[in-house]
What does this fold into?
Amino acid sequence: MVMKFSRQRAAILSFLESRKDHPTAELVYSGVKEEFPSISLGTVYRNLNQLSEAGMIAKHSFGVLGVDHFDYNTNPHQHFVCSQCNAVIDLPVNDHDFSSIDAEAAKGFDGLIQGHRLYFCGICRDCLNKNQV
Amino acid sequence: MVMKFSRQRAAILSFLESRKDHPTAELVYSGVKEEFPSISLGTVYRNLNQLSEAGMIAKHSFGVLGVDHFDYNTNPHQHFVCSQCNAVIDLPVNDHDFSSIDAEAAKGFDGLIQGHRLYFCGICRDCLNKNQV
DNA sequence: ATAATAACAGTAATCATTACTGATATCGTT
DNA sequence: AACGATATCAGTAATGATTACTGTTATTAT
It folds into this structure.
């Protein structure tokens, strides 16, 4: 199946590129809607899934949030989820600091460990500031 | 609000105690249904949530699965999710081997890291065997 | 035993996401 | 530049997990 490049898909991709947060499908929808008032939410979901299956974007499912978040940055990196405002923030930590944990977990386990999902929880700087006022 | 201890809740708790896998609400429902044919799925969900809020059981949301899993074992330990059969398996690894990663992630980050979610993905022993046949 | 109320069964509602439909846009080939 | 095959679209309906509501019942302290 040849992947055609529709204007809607281009708009979705460039919207995602323009943000360093990690928008949900709903947020992408309302963002792209300004350029394409008639775009459908289903179109956004379909494109986000196709783009992530093609490896052009990343899809993150943080269990605590219950909604999927999408990321233009496909390089492996760590995420932080604020439990107060639900913001998803990239951590400046180098990813290879966590590359050894798979080997660690494999000790004494008879299955095959291929990878892991990891994210950090806490309170972001903005919320910490708001709490102090 | 005083927590009353109904027979349904006792049955849900003891069903969970009897299993070392990590049943979903639906699975708890069909299990407890044998003892309580008239029990409602809503009752199961309500009790599982109350028990986990009370710290008597643990609730795990693995993003890859899209369903919540419940665990009688509330001691911190690591989990493995088989991407072929979706089984959730406890890893024999000591939990304190992963206790340092929060400090690692905090480097250069201005928010407050309170914890993390971590689980491992791959193929379990049973599926590896089946694949070889 | 009684009375206050937490919990129940049953059912309806919610929310994120996916599937379906006939119409339209894209893109390699003429 | 027009053509034709088909991927994609907008709109809408369906799904699946979970939560909320309601009138009735079970639990527990007094």
Observations:
- The first strand of chain A starts at residue 58 and ends at 61.
- Residues 65 and 86 of chain A are 7 Å apart (CA to CA).
- Residues 75-133 of chain A form a domain with the Dna Ligase; domain 1 fold (CATH 3.30.1490.190).
